[in-house]
Predict the structure.
Amino acid sequence: MGSGRVSGVSEGLGKVEVRLRWDPSPPGEPPRHLDIIAATYTVDDPYGPPAYVVHYDSRSPDGTINMSRHSRTGMGLGFVEAMSLEFDRLSSSYGRVVVGVAVHQDGGLRTFGDIVNAGVVVVEGYGQLLADDFTGVPDATAATIAEFTRGASGAWELHEMVRGFDSDPQLFAAEMGSSRRRG
C-alpha cells in the first residue's frame, strides 16, 4: 500500500478523521494494541512542548479533538479506531497539530513490522487525504503520520510526515512534534 496524499485542499481543512486498522493477535498471544495520539502546539511555540495531548482516554479541552472509536485488540474488520479533529473550530492560539500512532508494549517489545494488516487513513468527508501502511517504518515502535499547520490566512493544511520513533506511547507523546526521529 505504501503512502499517498491526495492534494487539492484550497479552502483549508474543516473536520478531519484519522482512522486506524490492524489485525488481532494470533490465538494464544497477548493482544496487539495500537493507539492514535495527537499533540497540539501553540502559535507562539510550534516546536516546543505540546500544549496538550489527546489519546484514547482524553480529549482536547474544548472538544475539538477526540477519539470517536477505540479498540484494544484490532478486529480485522477494517478501521476500528478513529480520532476526529475539527480544525474549523480549533482556537487561533494553536498553529500546529501532529498526529501519530504508537504500538503498546504490553506483552513484550513490538514494532510496526510485528503488526499484521496495519494501516491508517486521514479523511475529510468522503475524500481521502493520506493513507499509509507503516511499511516504511517496520522497526519503529511509534510513528508520526501527519502534521497539520495553520497558514498565514488561518487555513489549516495537511503535510504527510511518516517518521519512525523508538519510544513507548508516553515518551512518544512528548517527543513526536520535535525534529528528533529514528535513524
In short: Residues 1-10 have pLDDT under 50 and may be disordered. The radius of gyration is 15 Å. The longest strand covers residues 94-103.
